[in-house]
């Protein structure tokens, strides 16, 4: 099979599910309305799966990429994706506190912090590239 | 020239390989919250601190810890790209 997806495509696939979570959250006046929590919990699980899966794709791409600028971009975009989910969850976790939203908020926040940490690390590596290193410190590699 | 004939450093190729494995386990972990990833990161950082204090600082005082840390990570990335599982 020759068809393939870019990381941008994968991020785009996930975005509507975050919007759907917001739509469901807005569709009910309160969490105790019959069916509200069930519907939102279902969507929370979908978004959770998407964040986990997309993060895994980002990690795989970052491992394979040769250019540090490309790796920085991967983590930056993944962080932005997490931020998008957090923006939606920040209001939903108060309106639906017993429908899995606080747990998902905490998880996505941890993933976002992991992205930012990796991004910062890559930027430090980029800054270090111009520093000359004495011979004999590190092994020479092909 | 085969790699094993290239000059070693005070940090050896085998040590870079071990550091790269730890780096791989946390930097590219699918679950950044996993205990395995956190332990690997802790072991990696501890090794780097030890190498720096015992071998780098005494012989190369002009190299800062931050610079050494960055360069080791870049070396680990290069190692992993060449030695994909």
Could you describe the 3D structure shown?
The complex is a heterodimer of chains A (142) and B (85). Chain A is mainly alpha-helical and 142 residues long. Chain A has one domain. Chain A has helices at 7-27, 36-64, 68-95, 101-128. The mean pLDDT of chain A is 95. Chain B is an all-alpha fold. The mean pLDDT of chain B is 91.
Q: SSE order of chain A in H/E notation?
A: HHHH
Please mark out the parts of chain A with pLDDT under 50 across 5 or more consecutive residues, or reply none. none
Separation, N- and C-terminal Cα atoms of chain A: 34 Å
How many β-strands of chain B, per DSSP?
Answer: 0
Describe the structure in brief.
The complex is a heterodimer of chains A (142) and B (85). Chain A is built from four helices and no strands.
What is the topology?
The complex is a heterodimer of chains A (142) and B (85).
Chain A lengths: L6 H21 L8 H29 L3 H28 L5 H28 L14
Chain B lengths: L12 H15 L7 H25 L5 H18 L3
What descriptive keywords fit this protein?
heterodimer; A: mainly alpha; 75% helix; B: 85 residues
